[in-house]
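Summary for the steering committee. The consortium agreed at its last meeting that each partner would contribute one worked example illustrating the joint modelling workflow. Our contribution is presented below. We chose a case with several input lines so that the handling of multiple components could be demonstrated. No manual editing was applied between input and output; the record is shown as generated.
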Amino acid sequence: MTRREFLKNTLRLTGALAMAGSAIEILKPDSVFSARPSDVRWVFLVDTYKCVGCGMCVRACKLENEVPYDANVTRTWVERYVLTKDGRLLADSPKGARDGFISPRIDLGMGEYREIRPEEIEKAFFVPKLCNQCENPPCVQVCPVGATYQASDGVVLVDRKWCIGCGYCIMACPYGVRFFHPVYKVAEKCNFCYHRINKGLKPACVLACPFDARRIGNIKDPDDPVTKVITKERVSVLKDEYGTKPQVYYIGLSKEVR
Amino acid sequence: MSDILSTLLGNPVVHGEEWTLKELFVYPNEYIYWSIQIVMYPFMTGLVAGAFVLSSLYHVFGMKQLKDMARFSLVFSFALLFVAPMPLLFHLQQPLRGIHVFMTPHFTSAIAAFGVVFSTYGAIVASELWFVYRKYFVQTSQRLRNKMDRTLPETIKYLVTTILTLGSYDISEKALQRDERAVKILAGVGIPVACFLHGYAGFIFGSVKANALWMTPLMPVIFIMSAIVSGIALCMLTYIITMELRRLRASRPGIPYHLREEIKGVELNEIRMTSRYLIFFMIFAISLELLDLVFRGYTAVKSWDVLRSVIYGKDFTNIFILQYTVGNLIPFISLLIPGLTIRRAVVTLLLVLFGVFMMRWNVVIGGQSFSLSFSGYMHYHLPIIPHNIETFKEGLAGMLVILVMPFVLFWILTKIFPVFEFKEGH
Amino acid sequence: MHVLRPLFVFLAFVGIVLMARFLYVPADFGIHERGYMYGWHRKSNEEEWKQVRVKYQGMEYCSGCHPDKNKALRESPHRIIQCENCHGPAIEHPSEPLKLSIDRSRELCLRCHTYLPYPTSNRSNIKGIDPERHNPGIECFMCHNPHKPGPGR
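What follows is the complete predicted structure of the assembly.
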């Protein structure tokens, strides 16, 4: 065998192996169909009675997770719902409540506000929102490249080095929790402060909440106080009609909440 | 200067904030993320699919009247094929990573099908073109090979055609018959693939359960029908333009008058024939769209309140005036009135294209003009004058680039594939 | 047979893509715990997320060096508020004390203490003021001590 032939054959062999390897990687049946269980499943519990709309959670989240403070996007936010006696629903979340709610005026968008007198109000409350880390995350289903995925503990993560920035996941999320990170230019979302919960710390928003309105727990641990509330008390979730099986549970959710 | 530079190099701007205005209650992260380029994307793939279906009508079903049109629309479809992914690249926040769609495709995503369907379709169109023009490649290559004093363009032409023969110089009668059979098969296989290519573009939208306006199983079918409509219209239009140019050339002194009249006759005949197919597909497209609208109103699920306020309120002009009246009804009537002239055809075809474009606009932008909260609205303002890379790519400028591209590519392709001069073959 | 030549070209193209894939895609990219639908990803990315720097340290961490402040605060209604809510994340504080910001703004206090009459919400149970009438333009700490809240001093 001449040197030339040897090189040629080596090249051929490498090519063939590479092709075969790639094909097998795509079609590995056992791993395609099986989801392996894990002993941790992170869930979240929000008590809307306790929330006062101070927005400390939003502020802490932005600083902890390096989402540009002045950019009008946020991983978590707080909504205000005001129902008037004449049956009108007014809701707002100025800057995602990064600065809390320090005025009774409702932000109507397009630079308009509405003053509400106390005697007009029938009921009013705050609802914190964050990623629901759905059991069936539609955002993951639609990612064309496998840049967003669900970890074995249920948290949905985004691979900043692999995301192409098509925005399909943003479109697919019924809760509007995703956005493009203004600096990294890739999809961004709440991940329950993955770096903190894996070190035994609470997420920044949970830590910052003075009123215990936000809690995190492991639904697979029956002794977890959050698990006990979710399993033994009356809780609800947002928009279950989409079949996403959201894993952020709410106490005191009202029918007006969108 | 440094100010402009820093803006261009990506100041932390929130994607979507520059062209979105929010009204009433909209979630903080909601913006119009899918903007003009995502309107252009289904519009362009629609043109690809439509042009191909038109060419196949001749090759597969043997509609002889379309013969001249068939070869032309096949080449045009090929030109459009390269333009179709461009809006996506313009839209991506990480365009350099676009290749990931081929590297790690995730087939539960409709977009991931892009890599496979697009390549398959591209291969089919390219092969079909190869069979159609094989004889020409071989003849040109052989003619130029023996030529002693080749000019530079001739040398380039020689090299290109020689490569394009793919090493096969057999142009015997038998071989050419095989070619013809292959073209027929490819054109036949190509129709479902072209429909799939565009159907899945509809599926991208129709399967987004979070979006109340998009989510309907009719979406892929609606997209295919309007795709064919727009494809046929664009082919007819481009055909008219090229024929008029030929007439202009034929009117130079020294060329017999009757040739000019001949071209005109062929042109008018071809346009009248094709317009019948256009009407046929328009009826399908409009019926499906109306069915969708009626069904939504009749079933009136939770989202209907906000959808109604968008369809009959905020987007009324866009949907009922621009899309249905100007883009559908007027051209439809115009095509039905007998005695179609070239001038009327041009206006009608432009309106048809505009109507399909507005349909894409109303789906893509309209689907994002209300909040996921169903209690607020978003207004889209197309960036006209770009002041950073984002407003260039996803603004009027980027849109115009995409619109001009197919014609540039078509012009280049006609240098390789003679669309009009080549009279032999089938 | 010449008819098959385009097919060969196509197969060569597919081969090139597969080879490129072999070279380009990280080895740990694949189907992981949650199956192909939800678990198709680059495994090492999970570790990358776990390695993100923690900024907020929590009250116990602060009391390690400031037990006095912590003790005083424990007796006040503000004991439920994390030090870092007003003083900023503590991460760089021990090494660079000057980096700690203190938010003394009126707006910070108003986050809870603008009175909002919201039945069914805890907000209406907090002592609050109308910011437009209650000494507008003056910072709250001029009269009130956030570590020992109560009527003005």
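The CA atoms of residues 180 and 187 of chain A lie 5 Å apart. Helices of chain A lie at 3-26, 29-33, 56-64, 138-142, 168-172, 194-197, 204-208, 225-232.
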